[in-house]
């Protein structure tokens, strides 16, 4: 299949707009509208820079315009911060001429913080710390008097001054759905019509995930639960999108209401494995008797009653000709210039090793999220001064890679406590093109079949990929590894200095 490159990453079909609207590891979406423009942010966990920021004019086509936490003074993640810790669940709002982003840094010395900007592409301010705000998943809402309310997972609320971080009184418990419900979290508070609506996630972010809502006359309640709760869940269904929850509401260009939410696309046999992480989906919302009714989270979205406005086409190849990396590139925990730069050798990305391998928490790795169930990636590597290559990473204990050094190329697999060289072969000295392909698993297929297969190889002069090894993709899935992230495909240095002339990512299917 040849991908349609005239469409954005959320639209690879010929039939119209599709879900997920932001595919790949983009969980916990929060959205706001400013005039005709929409802005959306997601969690980033242990990756740097943190909190990707997207822009759209139609809710379907999204372009990443920056990262809110893009410098060390805003985001410090030490090597001992576990994978799937770090930056959790931001909320993005627009108030009084500024964008406000509140988020939790789940690491030592972190906590809840607020950053602001007049331009969501950045720069964003230095953080205002909120030591009096406990927990995760913070939300911001302002009432008619200008009072700012911060609501957190639990579900609890405290009045704050977002300019200074001061809190007024202890957090007060609100409504948290059914007594004993698992993980009431991801609160968002809105004034819509005559009511304040409190939207929350319930059931945990796994297969039991769902969305519930309540309403009250004041931002602090008391809150009356919707009789139809949960208003969205796919648990115990055969829907291709599962784990639906952690939602936010927004009005479309025509005034209709829509919901952005996270979900996953499990594949393979039993129990089903999702490999791209939790992705951002879009669903229609109607209002009945003062309550929101959520429509289908369809893979093919219905025809929309407003014009579609595609953004710029994402370039498949990055030649590293810019002085700074594009916003989509992320690294593990930090990105010091002395270890990752495009300025040392013009037109090349230079990575200087720090940890010994992808098994180490301080590995020098720069990658992009895998956004398609089937894709190819390639890079031209000059290993003359070190050892490095091309990897598919889920965390330190779950990754596959092809690396080159000393005239030899090797495919390395790490699954849990096991690490092995799967295949090796000699290569001529000098730069080499390493490649990988992710697609359907080989037959036979039964209840135990994994979601996909990952093949690694060396590209020949005629452009064909000489495959060294094909590995089962299930071991790079959340169901195996645990945690909250998805696959990231990229380049790394395991020893010395490694140069990369270009990186190419080609989607094959959505």
TrEMBL record:
Superkingdom in the source lineage: Bacteria
Keyword Transit peptide on entry: no
Residue ranges of every copy of the Beta-xylosidase C-terminal Concanavalin A-like domain listed in the record: 317-506
Keyword Hydrolase annotated: yes
Record-linked Pfam families: GH43_C2 (PF17851), Glyco_hydro_43 (PF04616)
Keyword terms of this UniProt record: Glycosidase, Hydrolase
Record GO terms (molecular function): hydrolase activity
Family (UniProt): Belongs to the glycosyl hydrolase 43 family.
Family annotation (PANTHER family): BETA-XYLOSIDASE, BETA-XYLOSIDASE-RELATED
Protein name: Glycoside hydrolase family 43 protein
Naturally occurring in which organism (per UniProt): Streptomyces milbemycinicus
